[in-house]
Amino acid sequence: MPDPSPPPALSTAAGIRAAALLLAASTLLSRILGYGRDWLIGFEFGATGQTDMYQASFTVPDLINHLLAGGALSVSLLPRMAELYARQDRGEGDPGHADRAFSTVCSAMMVAAVVLVGVAWLAADALVAVWFPGFDQAKRDQTAHLTRIVLPAQLFFLVGGLFQAALLARQRFAAMALTPLLYNAGILVGGLIGGRVGQIEGFSWGALAGALAGGLAVPVWSARHTLRFRFKFAPADPEIRRFLWVAAPLMIGVSLTTVDEWLVKHFGSSLQAGAISWLMTARRVMLVPIGILGSAAGQATGSYLARLHAEGQRDELARVLTRAVAAVTALSLVAAAVLWALALPVVEFLFQYGRFTPHDAARTAEALRPLAWAIPAWGAQQVLARAFYATGDTWRPMAVTTAILVAAVPLYAWAGAAGSGALVGLCIAGAVGMWLQAAGLAVLAWRRLGFRLAAYAGELGKAALAASAGGLCAWALAGSTVRSLCTTCPAPVERAIGLAIAAVPAAAVAVFVAVAVGMAGVPGRLARLRRWGRT
User: Fold this and answer.
1) Is the pLDDT of residue 9 over 60?
2) 10 Å Cβ neighbour count for 230?
3) Integer-rounded Cα radius of gyration of the chain
4) Which of 19, 54, 123, 143 is the most exposed place for a label (fewest CB within 10 A)?
5) Exposed, middle or buried: residue 86 (CB in 10 Å: 0-12, 13-18, 19+)?
6) Lowest-confidence range among 153-167, 305-319, 437-451, 496-510?
7) Three-state DSSP class for 151?
8) Looking at residue 48, what DSSP letter applies?
9) What distance in Å separates the CA atoms of residue 262 and residue 431, rounded to the nearest whole number?
10) pLDDT at position 70 over 70
């Protein structure tokens, strides 16, 4: 039987911190597993045409995911489920309304997903040919084969995402924390099996298995006591219309956080072999701090903002949103500066093994340096976008992000045609576009949600000082003199020592400046820690 009782009461701040820590830990472990996957790909296959095809094979599935709003289904359904559960907890209305609404929406989306995935499976060859004009016929055929393997995973993620919405409406985050871990573990295991026989498609089969286990099985099992699902295909039901009104902008609109990867792969297919692999490897390194700081904060904050919106607490919603965005941006800016300074040592330490050559490391680092500056903007919009979704407003933010994307596409096209500078140019285009998108969402949040721009700008200025200090320190210590202190050590040890010598003092300097200027409330938090230590 579904559990009608709400979760144990927590203050909004305490609940957000607990959820953010859980999801940040999950993201960190997931990134470690993802690093193991990328390391294994580089070790076994290097950065070659074969790895380019593997990276490209996820583009069509990602497009299907976008058309079904798969990546945002939980935030699309979350406001409605939060509203129905709030009524249920107050003893208002029909106690089974939440279960019926969920079943109706989930059934309709399942049917749509099966149809769309089936069409894409049949049309994979044509879709690959259109999106990757730089691939020859052999590459297109292999990319289409790998695409068909991973396409069904989108069905698993779609259904699982809807179950996640019901769990998030109850502030239950365990399933969301487990999903990426099992998904990445599946890819890693598949790659280990496939790598032994020289077949990169082992990673694709692992992705399919990980999506089944983490994307579908875990959310469904976790929600067994929260709701009761019964298949009910009723496309004319009012709940479908309500859901589509919220989800439609996410289906037909576009955002650089999604399309940036597609554009990079599209234009990268016309560059030299290995270019897509260099770009995707750099992108995944960049996504680590975004996942830990931005995604975790956005997921944790979103569910509480939905509750505050349902309760009509507009001032509290604005305050929580401003503090969350300011903290994420400030910390991300420091991370971006240090990563920019240490791009090459980081890539060498993480990936330069086996068939991933020094040339591969150098080209990946070239891409990573401009990408690092997209981290603060990306992190900020993770929180801002979810704030709009939590209030049921998806049309306005998606209109803003779509307009910015349309304006940014010529920049990508110009960068992709820049010859020898195309690799770095595509990354600069992405970083510029991401900052424009974050600025657009911040202004919209100021107008619609009471986001406090002045307070946010003040925190951004403080963070810039801390980031400059930490970045310059890391850059000064990352030279060849520091990195050659242990030339007789094994390569991984030597690289780790070089990174530590550069990164630890840089982080210390950044923290010192952050405390001095009061960045993101750091002095207050340290004071509370000191008081706690004396008790």
Assistant:
1) no
2) 11
3) 23
4) 123
5) middle
6) 496-510
7) coil
8) S
9) 15
10) no
